[in-house]
Amino acid sequence: MTEESTLPIADSQGRYTTALGPDDKDELEGILDGLASRGGEDIPCWEFCDGFLTALVCCRRPIPPAEYLPVLFGDDGARLEVAEGEPLPWVPVFADAAQQTRFMQLWTRRWNEVVSQLDIGLETMVDEYEFQPGVLDMRGAMADLSDEERAEMGEDYVVPPLGQLWARGFLFAVKNWIDDWEIPDDREAIQWQDRALDEIAALLEDDTGVPEVGAIEDGPLSTSRARVAVFCKAAQAAYALRQLGKVLGARMAIAQKVFKPGRNDPCPCGSGKKYKKCHG
């Protein structure tokens, strides 16, 4: 383990988790590359997965692994049936149960890290605990390759700009659980959510500006300052969506508890019958 991989992360409730270090991220990428090499054409890269994970953290309904893993790995029609309290069964996309267990260990650490960082909030955040989407400066990495290495990539290889794959993963999760993102009868919350999602969607656009900064130390310039500003706004949008999801989740839970009719109350459908004799 590297020193970075043991950095403690504390949220506003004093909960601690452990950040993923470079070795951990390389291991995750290795697992995903292995899944893809075994014929998994729909296996996403880690940057896409990190965006997907962050969206699940921001969703107001807790979505279990048995529900999201088949979607993430391209088999959304094969949701796993898992009884409450039962362990997650083996998902066939993994080589074996041990590989799945290791992936979920690393995934859970990243999940807890994102939760802790987003729950700190922008106002009380310190730099070392700041939420950073798990992105790679692909254009910087490509520019740092030799001519021979770039030629091996092929002329048709499209190099995504900073944060684009992360945004695709985030919005892919939103699309697949769109019902859980719909906000009824709250115009202000709807506008707030739409604005935050638009800021993340802005990362889907290409970076056509002049390269002015680079993420690789002493490496080539790869990203415009305008793109960096868009990226920072998207990261801040994740804070807003996490807080909104928590507020709306709690609010809807209270509403459901308060307005559920009793067995002898009139049925809400207007039939005139008691709830227990009608839709109860």
TrEMBL record:
* Entries under Gene3D superfamilies matching the protein: 3.10.450.50
Q: What is this protein called?
A: YecA family protein
Q: Which Pfam families match?
A: SEC-C (PF02810), UPF0149 (PF03695)
